[in-house]
Amino acid sequence: MSAYLRNMEDKTAPVETLFEETWRDDDTMLLQQIENAVYDHPQVLDDFTADIVICTPKLLWFPASVTETEDATPEELFAEVYPVEAEDVLIDQSEGILGAYTLCSGLPAFLYRTFPGARVSHVQSLIRQRFAGRNADAVRMYVDIREAEADFIIFNGTKFVQGCVHSYRQASDLVYHILNLSEVYGLNPETLQVHLSGKREVRDELIPLLRRHIEYVMHAMVPSFVNDAEMPLGAAIAASRPASV
């Protein structure tokens, strides 16, 4: 968990890291750990415009029309795959697409109570919105790499094809996931573009491995202040959006 502060009036001011916390993986204590991190760093509760970005593999994408064609809400459909309570499911919606996701029980209530008015998004929603129109005549896969997990977002032109999360231990695992997704969705490795972001040391190892199979492999174009602040891509995209009213 990390928190950053960006001066939206002076865009040249450096991004400030308010805190970074790392815990052992323990789903039963996750909400308490998140709450403690917030209360241990009360500066995040100051009068800021807040964007909250959530990374979780418990994610499903639906066409927005699912609410018209199914006898169940997106939350109920999500619970058929991930058994959670409806109030623990978060929903992102834009351009006719719904993203349903959850991290841990009780998190939405805590976020909405503690950060009223905050924009809450899954990291893939932000990546999808930012890159849907980039290189829009090409088939593209964006791979955002963090510790032990990576997000994979696929576009065919401006059309969103799929978004998913996979774990990895080493760069070769990411090669497998990229090639497997390419096969599943019929992506031609001779024309596919793979755009990488996230952990630099993993990217540096991954690029030569990928180029044995895919010709167009490159670093994703990210907001200019990302490298200076070493921010995760999702946080940087959120910080580059206009302040909410």
CATH topology call of the largest domain: Nucleotidyltransferase, domain 5
The number of helical elements comes to 9
Give the topology string: H per helix, E per strand. EEHEEHHEEHEHEEEHEHEHH
Low-confidence stretches: none
Q: Report the CATH superfamily of the largest domain.
A: Protein of unknown function DUF3822, C-terminal domain
Give the proportion of residues in helices.
25-40%
Structure report:
The structure is a single chain. This protein is α/β, with parallel strands linked by helices and 245 residues long. It folds into three domains: 48 residues, no CATH class; 67 residues, no CATH class; 95 residues, Protein of unknown function DUF3822, C-terminal domain (Nucleotidyltransferase, domain 5), CATH 3.30.420. It is 32% helix and 27% strand. It contains nine helices and twelve strands. The strands form four sheets. Strands 10-9-8-11-12 form a five-stranded mixed beta sheet, sandwiched between helices. The protein has a three-stranded antiparallel beta sheet with strand order 4-6-5, covered by helices on one side. The protein is globular and about 50 Å long.
